[in-house]
Design a protein that fits this description.
This protein is α+β, with helices and mostly antiparallel strands. Helices cover about 45% and strands about 25% of the residues. The protein has three domains: about 120 residues, Efflux pump adaptor protein, beta barrel domain (Elongation Factor Tu (Ef-tu), domain 3); about 55 residues, Beta Barrel (OB fold (Dihydrolipoamide Acetyltransferase, E2P)); about 100 residues. It is elongated and about 160 Å long.
Length: about 350
């Protein structure tokens, strides 16, 4: 028979031990944490749904205003050579802002300058010929005057029968010769004047070619591409630089016919960039396509690409461009907002807000 050294504990006794009490308290604590977590998730979900609903309501478009996605664009201007030649210098880099009329490059003009000196020398030669012809006119006029006086004197002598008619015929011929010589000198002077004008025109033409060899920016904008290097020889029309024309910056959007048909040409518009949603840029409807087209692949959904849409151009206001031209970045995507009713008013969140 085996004797027990310790008294066995009943279940009721085990439940009353300190270890059992602590385990029960821990289980209750875990259940409380789980309940609190669930409640917290429900509260956050409710708050998120409420915020989403509030945002949707706040930024809902009122009646008479439509929107479409697009991207900012600017016309490209090619700065090219008018005269064939070698590039001597390029004074700008890609990304530089330039003003209208600013010199951006220079072509070699050594040959043209030689042609200019030749043309200028020909002008001087024609002017010398003109001076000579003017002196000849003075001389021939003097001879003609003397011949006329001789004719009058001999005519009087013949009338008095002091001199024979044959002598008068000789004097008459001399007068005709003097008149002819005077007319030739006068014609030569006119020819010299015409030659001077032609030579001066040649000088102006060569000078214009030299001036065209200086490459200038035709408008205000930013240099986008550098297409040639110093030392390269280009033909006439060779492209050197590509300039983004910042005198007309615009966003192109596409709208269906039922919306585009109600747009007002010249009406105000709004542009908001994805990269700067806090700013609202004023614009104007400056182009409405007359023909519908399939929207380009840049439109994200296949459903929208399948629709016939009208291309709309929203040009940024010139006053804004003057102040913020340096911040313009073509290619930025965003949303364009237009009015389809003249009585529609812009909501507060579409009020103009510039940096």
């Amino acid at each position: 028979m085996k004797l027990s050294t310790a008294k066995e504990m009943t279940p009721e006794a085990k439940a009353t031990t300190p270890e059992a009490g602590r385990g029960k308290a821990k289980g209750n604590a875990h259940r409380g944490i789980r309940v609190a977590a669930v409640i917290g998730v429900l509260v956050l979900a409710g708050a998120g749904a409420g915020y989403w609903w509030w945002q949707e309501k706040k930024y809902a478009l009122p009646q008479g205003i439509a929107k479409a996605n697009g991207r900012i664009e600017a016309d490209q201007v090619e700065i090219a050579t008018k005269e064939p030649g070698r590039i001597v210098s390029i004074l700008v880099k890609e990304g530089d802002m330039v003003k209208a009329g600013q010199v951006v490059g220079q072509m070699d003009t050594a040959q043209l300058e030689a042609e200019l000196r030749t043309a200028q020398a020909e002008v001087l030669s024609a002017e010398a010929q003109k001076t000579q012809d003017e002196a000849s006119i003075v001389q021939q006029d003097s001879i003609r005057t003397y011949a006329r006086q001789e004719f009058m004197r001999h005519s009087a002598l013949v009338a008095k029968r002091v001199e024979t008619p044959e002598m008068l015929d000789q004097v008459r011929n001399s007068l005709k010769t003097a008149d002819a010589a005077y007319d030739v000198a006068t014609a030569s002077l006119e020819a010299a004047k015409a030659t001077i004008r032609a030579r001066q025109a040649a000088v102006a033409w060569v000078q214009a070619r030299i001036n065209d060899s200086t490459l200038v920016a035709p408008c205000r904008g930013r240099i986008e591409y550098k297409l040639a290097q110093v030392g390269e020889v280009l033909g006439a029309g060779g492209r050197v630089l590509t300039l983004l024309d910042f005198s007309d910056v615009y966003m192109t959007i596409f709208l269906p016919d039922d919306t585009a048909g109600r747009l007002i040409f010249g009406d105000g518009a709004r542009v908001i960039f994805d990269a700067f949603p806090q700013y609202v840029i004023p614009a104007k409807v400056t182009f409405i396509a007359t023909d519908a087209q399939f929207t380009p692949k840049a439109v994200e959904t296949a459903e929208e690409r399948a629709k016939l849409m009208f291309r709309i151009k929203l040009s940024v206001e010139p006053e804004v461009l003057k102040e913020y031209a340096s911040q313009v970045k073509t290619g930025l995507r965003g949303m364009g907002y237009v009015r389809t009713s003249s009585t529609a008013t812009w909501p507060d969140w579409l009020a103009v807000k510039l940096p």
